[in-house]
Amino acid sequence: YETTRSMSKTPWVARVASRFRGGFKPKAYGDATWRTIGREAEHPVVSNNPSTPLAFEVQKLWGRLNRAGNFKVEREPCGLVVGLVGPRYTFSAEVGKGTIEIVTEPANDLNELADIYEEAMDHLIAAAADFDAKVLGYGIQPLSILDDSMMLPKARYKALREVIGDPWLAFTGTAADQVHVSITEDEIISHTNVANLMAPAVIALCANSSVCAGRVQGVCSSREKLMSRTYGEPQRYGMIHGPHADVEEMVVKYAEQSMALTVDYQAWGKGNLFEYLQTQTPCGDTEMAAFLRHEHYIWNSARPRSQHGTLEMRAACQQPWSERHAAAALNMGLVCAGTHLDELVNKFVGPRDVSWPLMQEYYQQAVVSGLAASEPVPDYLCRVLEVCGEALQKRGRGEDKYLHPLWRRLECRRNPAQDATQAFQQGGMEALIQLSECK
User: Considering the entire predicted model, what is its pTM?
Assistant: First the structure.
């Protein structure tokens, strides 16, 4: 396996690219394609101590959450409970002991998704209250230090800690609000490119992790800042540095990055995917399994997921409870409006050789300053929201109503992180928790 761009024309890459495409539905007829959406909502859980809300161990909640026996219990080989699987949603343990994730089944629209998510949250909030704990609509643990004591002792987390080192510990406290939106085979590259180009807009509007480790961090998205250090490779986390040309080139770009875990979740870290495959018996199943294991640990702002036939949107922090559907709606709108957003960027920002560097700069500014960052062109975010709203309106389900909080944020030029910073500076940790609590 040669680690060069010429690999995009080799039989190995062709085989993997073909199987990767096979996970997506074939091309449909334009607007007749109906998109479904699933949500992966991560939430910090903290003790009910207003001045010192340390991370609460989510492991204590499993028995209460499954008191009626309605969930299938997922365990590690050692017996550690790592999830409860239900018919409409799953509670899943995250890297951090104080973070829980709600994974919904695919929904037909944002209204159905809201019903599923809120049913799960009602259950979770009640369970936490029984232990005098609070669930937060916030993007990171606000007080606890992100160190080894915070990491759930799950086998693959230990392996990743070994390979990545201290930067992996950022995952022990961060909380994202991610969605999976269905796309078709012909949209894999076009929509992945556009969605990454939109990452700065998502962060500007939805960053919500400005206070962590008990102090203001000087950025709106501590989550993006901390996790960008995870591997030290330029396109491992966050917005990709340039558009993918096709699936084959994307496979090569992924394969050139360091391989963290083997197919059976053992620490590897001895080189990239090409070098790992040199140690394996060549066959299609081994190649594809290795690629899927590898690409799972490349955390771009938007990434196509062959296992689900979706585009995963990863840039948003968890949102305040009063505006809990805003990020999901924005990301759904961005995928539905993909082609029109590409045209918008080309018209108002410039062609790719101009727009991508500008958006990279905007991405960095949005991480720091949120809606106080200078937009790449005047009224850029307004135009993005207009196009997203139109795309959601065309679906005929009234889903554009979930964008209303984003219009308010844009009008005030304040995102949740900016509100959190102000609350903390004026009223300390107690005010931040009051602002962030889900109830």
Answer: 0.96
